[in-house]
């Protein structure tokens, strides 16, 4: 299967010295949904901007649908659909007028049928004649996706598509995205800072942190790397952290002990069996524990392992 998107060793530093990309490399295969998962500021949007020809890297190379993004940006633009983080809809125009304008820009013949089909498929036919500003956030976002699909792109970029949507709007859009990927055999590059979104939609995903990919694989592979259970112990007092970490580092059955704020995390082949010994060790060190949880590994645990902190740490938006 050919590669729909390749990025090799992308570097980008913005004026003022903010380093957004520090050697990012990724490949999206034709027909797959690839998730780029990372917290705010990780470099996801900078990657999308380069791949969609809206920004240039300082160094590195990239191709989309077989075209070099720097040498043939016009060819790339014809092959891609982009749903940007901020909606590009004209709020005063109707849904149908927004789509018609887009179809004309791309010079699509017989676009009325295509527009009607897409409106129907995304459940927007009834609202299509009304100005977009009166639509719900979820409907507007679905129209953003439709807008990106009018010219039948082979590669679709979705930049944090569900940010700001209520749970119902998110669930509906997830269903549409999953269906799109299955029906259209289109490559989709999805950026998100929602772990559950990446888990649900991406066939493969890469975790991006500090402008580079720290790990990649299928969600199941990434979680499978983490043998056994995830044990999380929340301490009463954050300053106890280092001593608590020391205290449980010798407990039999626990490994990969990490401290983030006042939460100690560890892996265990049998979490339930290891917890009593961990609690006893902490008690004899005079350290109070507020909560204990034992769970199957999640993508959050994968993130912790590779980025060295929890996804939901202060300063890391989840
Ligand atoms: N135009 C710009 N000028 C200066 N700094 C920028 C610019 N765009 C992005 N940055 C900085 O580059 C870093 C990476 O930003 P980027 O938007 O690529 O990350 P992100 O993972 O998409 O985050 P978000 O989810 O907030 O969009 C951040 O520190 C950001 O503040």
Automatic annotation (TrEMBL):
Keyword annotations: ATP-binding, Nucleotide-binding, Transport
The reply to whether Nucleotide-binding figures as a keyword in the UniProt entry is yes
ABC transporter domain ranges (all copies): 5-235
The protein's matches in InterPro entries, at most eight in alphabetical order, are given as: AAA+_ATPase (IPR003593), ABC_transporter-like_ATP-bd (IPR003439), DrrA1/2-like_C (IPR025302), P-loop_NTPase (IPR027417)
Kindly list the GO molecular function terms attached to this UniProt entry.
ATP binding; ATP hydrolysis activity
- Would the keyword Nucleotide-binding turn up in this protein's UniProt record? yes
Q: Which residues cross the membrane?
A: none
Which SMART domains does the record match to this protein?
A: AAA (SM00382)
Source organism superkingdom: Bacteria
User: What SUPFAM superfamilies does UniProt report for this protein, alphabetically?
Assistant: P-loop containing nucleoside triphosphate hydrolases
The name on file for this protein is ABC transporter
Q: Which organism is it from?
A: Actinoplanes awajinensis subsp. mycoplanecinus
